[in-house]
Amino acid sequence: MHEPAASTGWQARLEIEIALRHGRSRVVGKHQLGPLTIQRAFHPEGAPCHLYLLHPPGGVVGGDALEVDIRVGSGAHALVTSPGATKFYRSAGPRCRQRQRLSVATGGIVEWFPHENILFPGAVCTLDTRVELSGTACFMGWEIQCLGRPVIAERFDEGRAEIALTVLRDARPLLTERLRVAGNASLNCPAGLRGFPIAATFLATGADRDALAIARRRLTDSAGYPVGATLIDDLLMIRALAPEVEPVSRLFVALWSDLRPSLLGLPACAPRIWAT
């Protein structure tokens, strides 16, 4: 089937460069094209900067292409979040694309906490998040995919989604994950989503068996849906399938609060926007 060109929709790109200046992480470079931007950086805990990604249209439709490129320099620390879910609406044919690249120099830190992606039935989309770490760079973050709108018993039984998550250190893959969803067969597969509409992943580098034990203790609170923790080298992975977004969001925030002191040497400092 012929797929119309992506140029029929919004073409948006945001490039951000963050560097350590006078003891604080600051936005030292910004290039913006189309409806994609950030609020000014906040410093509620001193040196780290908190950034809020903004997409004013509020939703993504067929033909849209969104690109986010964030580069964090040596010694800098950025916590990136968003004010709300990203909604991918039904397409009349064209595919929409969201590409996110986080590049972190040695000694840098990125915390990546976007709200969930909501895929409406009939959406046709490609989502790609790539984390590139150098040397001793650290990453902690999550990705939450909501297939349909479970609050109204709506399923992603039409449309197609290709979702990729990649983490590399010094160009060596630590994680390469692909999820392809197309109809009820993908949603219900025993080796796939098992009928759950929420698929979520929490990642943290620099972890050890103590961090794994901390995570597993927290996972005892997640009764009623499948969730598990794995440690491969220094990469801690928590994966969850769930009937709703809210339990997973609460679990992931709690995991971050538990793990941040030992992995990043800082107490949890929730972005102000999470309280609104």
How widely separated are the two ends? 44 Å
Low-pLDDT segments, ≥5 res:
1-6
Number of helices: 3
What is the global morphology? globular
Largest sheet: 11 strands, mixed
**Structural Rg:** 18 Å
Q: What's the arrangement of secondary structure elements?
A:
Blueprint: E1 11-21, E2 24-33, E3 37-38, E4 49-54, E5 65-72, E6 77-81, E7 86-88, E8 96-104, E9 109-113, E10 117-119, E11 124-133, E12 138-149, E13 154-155, E14 160-169, E15 172-181, H1 184-188, E16 198-204, H2 209-219, E17 227-232, E18 235-242, H3 245-264
Parallel strand pairs: 1-5, 4-6, 5-8, 6-9, 7-10, 8-11, 9-12, 10-12, 11-14
Antiparallel strand pairs: 1-2, 3-4, 12-13, 12-16, 14-15, 16-18, 17-18
Helix pairs in contact: 2-3
Note down, in words, how this protein is organized.
The longest helix is centred in the C-terminal third of the chain and has 20 residues, at 245-264. The protein has one domain. Helix content is 13%, strand content 46%. By secondary structure, the chain is mainly β. Strands 3, 4, 6, 7, 9, 10, 12, 13, 16, 17 and 18 form an eleven-stranded mixed beta sheet that branches. The chain has a seven-stranded mixed beta sheet with strand order 2-1-5-8-11-14-15. The chain is built from three helices and 18 strands. Strand 17 (227-232) and strand 18 form a beta hairpin. It starts with 10 loop residues before the first strand and ends in a 12-residue tail after the last helix.
